[in-house]
Amino acid sequence: MTNSLSGKASCQFGRNTPRPKTHQAVALPASVAAEDTERVGVEVNQVDLRKAPLVAPHPLVVITPGHRFRRRTVRSAGMTAEIVQEIGSERIEYRFQAPVHLLIMFERGVRRGGETDIEGLPRSALRNLSRKFAFVPAGKDYRDWREPSMPARTAFFYFDPTGLPGAQAAGAARLAPRLFFEDPQLFATAQKLVWLTEGPEHENSYYIEALGHVLIHELMRTDHGIVPRKSMERGGLAGWQQRIVTGYIEDHLADPLSLAELSGLVGLSSCHFCRAFRQSLGIPPRRYQACQRIARAKALLAKPDPSVTYIGLMIGFNNTSSFTAAFHKATGLTPTAYRRSFT
Description:
With 343 residues, this protein is of the alpha+beta class. The chain has helices at 184-197, 201-223, 229-232, 239-251, 259-265, 270-281, 285-301, 308-314, 320-331, 335-340, and strands spanning 3-4, 26-28, 41-44, 49-52, 59-60, 62-64, 69-76, 79-86, 92-96, 101-118, 132-136, 142-159, 178-181. The protein folds into two domains: 3-223, Jelly Rolls; 238-340, Orthogonal Bundle (Arc Repressor Mutant, subunit A). The chain has ten helices and 13 strands. The strands form three sheets. Strands 2, 6, 7, 8, 9, 10, 11, 12 and 13 form a nine-stranded antiparallel sheet that branches. A two-stranded antiparallel sheet has the order 1-5. The chain has a two-stranded antiparallel ribbon with strand order 3-4. Helix 5 (259-265) packs across helix 6 and helix 8 (308-314) packs across helix 9.
């Protein structure tokens, strides 16, 4: 049911786990089938890829067929973060059951058919998975199959149950399975981890570890139904307002958007909207659009076509040099080097 990456390895997420070494981010190539990931890994540096043994202290989600996706993994004390980009529109299946917790963030993706099943919950055939979460407690079975109409980009976060806050206390509460829930604060933290996972790991390892702890606390807060004080204060965007604005931004990545245009979508003044947007998503609207441009560029660069120049134009850059500079600032890699990492 799971692809354990090291037969002798035990879960080593605990507090005594040493800090990750530099260049510890790994990307598993599409040419390697999911069941073979226990034997082959690819160590990533800023420029190229080279084969190296992959030693993981826990299982990863099994994905089949092995040529329909690309994955990149970063490990830190207490957490493993993994990004999976689907390729094409053929059926793809996911399976997982292990003694570690699994938080799934569906960053984007739409399926024309499929079903998601977490042990203990009713099955769901929800089609639009974008910005949704699922949580699989340690030991529970997770199965998912999809026929993508828009290939999904998914992040998997693995946690050791013994490393959660309060886990050592007698009678510690068990986390419940959850399927397709939304939470703006959790999404903002998880998306930061996704951006860092795609960057040069040796520059971000401490930040990745810190955000991993924040993500754990955010997850436990949502499980216990605690609404953060900040979200209750005057000025935050309502859920429907956030969905309208972020959807509009993502549909107009190449367009210059004004605060007046965005605030008009949800009936707020420009000043109030800017403050509310930042409170809900953690960054200003223009920076959110810039981040989404880079995220879209990454998805396009994972494929051999189109050209780097065309991708830059598609997401709103007037020339290749400005696109390259912005992409390098965000990821530590040029667009060409990033694309080369998938070959």
